[in-house]
Amino acid sequence: MLLEAWHNLLALLREIGRQARRHYGWAIALVLGSAAIPALLFPHDRALLVGVQFLRGHAETTGHAIAWQLGRWGDYPTYNLPAAILIWIYGAATKSRAWRQVALVAFLGASLAGLFDDCFRLTLGRPRPDVYPAVVDGFYGPTKALFGRYESFPSGHAASDVGMAVALLLVCRPLGWLATAFALAVVWGRLELNKHYPSDVAVGSMIGVYWGMVIGVAGRRLLAGSPNSTDQG
After folding, report:
1. How many Å apart are CA 56 and CA 71, to the nearest integer?
2. What are the tens digits of pLDDT across the range 182-212?
3. What is the CATH number of domain 2-224?
4. Both ends of the chain: CA-CA distance in Å?
5. Which region holds residue 194: left if phi is over 0, alpha if psi is between -120 and 50, else beta?
6. Is 140 exposed, middle or buried (0-12, 13-18, 19+ CB in 10 A)?
7. What is the pLDDT of residues 148-178, one digit of tens each?
8. 99 and 230 Cβ atoms separated by less than 8 Å
9. Over the Cα atoms of the chain, what is R_g?
10. Cis amide linkage into residue 154, ω under 30° from 0
11. In terms of Cα–Cα distance, which of 160, 207, 208, 217 is closest to 20?
12. Least C-beta-crowded within 10 Å: which of 32, 140, 149, 189?
């Protein structure tokens, strides 16, 4: 079964490459959007952040506790990876090749989106909003990005969670809707806790949407030839 997973992973990666070449317009849209959003939002990021932090008083205290838990359990090692493993175990237990392929789609949706996001997050060095005004907003480069408080742009939580959610929406809609709701909750939590600016989560989400679409389309094509498909309705 592990050998099958390895062959399925290679087949999925090959199909992802084909879909990425076929839908190169999506990549162009990602590049243009990732350039346009910062240009439009950066000057207003702090005002927008204050605007979305609507909780006050007791509700704010409770909301921050919920947001902290969402951030803790919505990260790649605590959510994306375990979720993909659980789906694969379910597929193994039910002897469903289709569910095991869904697990690979979920894994790659989160992983490739997260890795692509990290290429920028770990080199640009934008400080998180919770260090303002001690540190002025801007880009401080890779030497600062090695420290956690300079990893704001783009949001890694948004990229990996949205990447997995969009990929699942295309291969297993019920799971995809659950993952989408959770991803939106995590994104809200990161804003509420002053861990990211709106532009951070917007670009991170765009990265997730792109990789989720490419991987989801590739996974759906492979699932079409699977002997037992999942419910996509």
Report:
1. 20
2. 999 999 999 999 999 999 999 999 999 999 9
3. 1.20.144
4. 28
5. left
6. middle
7. 689 999 999 999 999 999 999 999 999 999 9
8. yes
9. 18
10. yes
11. 217
12. 32
DSSP assignment of 48-83: HHHHH----HHHHHHHHHHHHHHHHHTSIIIIIHHH
DSSP state, residue 130: G
User: Which of 121-130, 137-146, 156-165 shows the lowest mean pLDDT across its residues?
Assistant: 137-146
Quick one: what percent of the chain has pLDDT higher than 70?
A: 92
Question: What's the token pair of residue 148?
Answer: 């956690």
> Is the distance from CB of 122 to CB of 26 less than 8 angstroms?
no
Residues 29, 8: Cα–Cα separation, whole Å: 29
pTM: predicted TM-score of the whole model, two decimal places: 0.90
- Comparing C-alpha atoms, which of 220, 216, 191 is closest to residue 204? 191
Q: Is the pLDDT of residue 232 over 60?
A: no
Domains of the chain: which residue ranges?
2-224
Q: How far apart are CA 168 and CA 96, in angstroms?
A: 17
